[in-house]
Design goal:
This protein is of the alpha/beta class and about 325 residues long. A hairpin with a 7-residue loop joins strand 10 and strand 11. Helix 10 crosses helix 11. The radius of gyration is 20 Å and the shape is globular. The model has no long low-confidence stretch (mean pLDDT about 95). The protein binds pyridoxal-5'-phosphate. Pyridoxal-5'-phosphate binds next to helix 2.
């Protein structure tokens, strides 16, 4: 894992404590339990991967939302709002998704530092979910947030997994990288209390084999994703469906708002006319209304077929 992070992302995590967790979401749950108390404010930037909110709520913490800004089909962080919310809503923790699901932004060094610096300034713990780090288009680069400044080691907790990169979700093995030893102890206590103290040997072998031998595989997958993205762009071009500008991920965030239709009507058209299932963007937060998330980690022929069907339904729709 360390050599993967080093060779693919130029990141040296060798001094961090590695804690194994069954999943990234359960890792986030463990960190929330270990380092915050009931009713503490935890900030997320929506639209974002919906289990962040679920983990905050099931653990009876307070969800504080900062909406991302969308200009000309491109999402950016609303730093002024983030800082105001951190201060005014007594935020103790931020859960950050980098690269970002569902919007496909690969945050720049400057953006990452803005988030980390504001957390540092206000004594906020920062969870950096980097599970999508290996799906980045050629024009962008993923930077592991904690490596951008040695001072970030005190308050940043990084989560990664082979589950997305190598399609190994069913091995239920992911990693937390933690430098702050007080946090390490508290997080390990949570797993000890749950009796989660050993991993599946099969999972560890699968993961090791993937990280050792999977470089070409991941390059090839990324090439197919890029090809699929071009297919979607070309076929949906004549429609009013807008594809938000992304720099990575195998997920596209499609904007159907130009049709000025109720979300349920769009759903109905997709499902019952085009016979294509996309995820309703509303699950990722209120600002996801009118958007749908499309997974393009698939055979180009299937992607082409899905888009052709969607175009046939939406092309001439007023
Ligand atoms: C941002 C993000 N974090 C975590 C996960 C899931 O992680 P796990 O299955 O390891 O809990 C996903 C899966 O979609 C994801 O997109």
């Amino acid at each position: 894992i360390l050599s993967w992070c080093s060779s693919r992302h130029n990141a040296d995590l060798s001094e961090a404590t590695l804690i194994t967790t069954p999943g990234v979401v359960s890792g986030i749950g463990a960190v929330i339990n270990a380092l915050t108390d009931e009713n503490d404010g935890i900030l997320i930037m929506e639209p974002v991967y919906h289990p962040f909110r679920r983990m905050i709520e099931v653990n009876k913490r307070r969800t504080v939302v900062s909406e991302l800004s969308l200009n000309d089909g491109y999402y950016t962080l609303n730093m002024k709002d983030i800082e105001e919310k951190i201060v005014n809503e007594a935020v103790k923790m931020v859960i950050f998704c980098t690269p970002a699901n569902p919007i496909g932004r690969v945050w720049t060094i400057q953006e990452l530092k803005q988030v980390a610096d504001v957390c540092q300034k206000h004594g906020v713990i920062l969870i950096s979910d980097e599970i999508h780090m290996d799906f980045v288009f050629p024009q962008a680069k993923h930077h592991m947030l904690v490596t951008l400044n040695p001072a970030y080691r005190d308050f940043v907790i990084t989560l990664i997994s082979a589950s997305k990169t190598f399609n190994l979700a069913d091995t239920h093995t992911s990693q937390l990288f933690v430098y702050n030893q007080t946090y390490v102890e508290k997080i390990e206590q949570i797993y000890a209390r749950l009796g989660i103290t050993r991993q599946s040997g099969f999972a560890l072998e699968a993961q090791a084999a993937a990280y050792r031998n999977g470089h070409q595989y991941v390059d090839d997958v990324n090439a197919v994703i890029l090809e699929n993205k071009k297919i979607v762009e070309t076929i949906l071009e004549p429609t009013k469906i807008k594809i938000t500008k992304s720099e990575g991920l195998y997920l596209l965030w499609l904007d159907f708002r130009a049709y000025k239709k109720d979300v349920n009507d769009i759903m109905d058209l997709l499902l019952n006319k085009a016979h294509v299932w996309l995820i309703n963007g509303e699950v990722f937060g209120k600002s996801g209304t009118g958007f749908f998330r499309m997974n393009i980690a698939s055979d180009p022929m299937l992607v082409k077929e899905a888009c052709t069907r969607m175009a046939a339904v939406f092309n001439n729709l007023i």
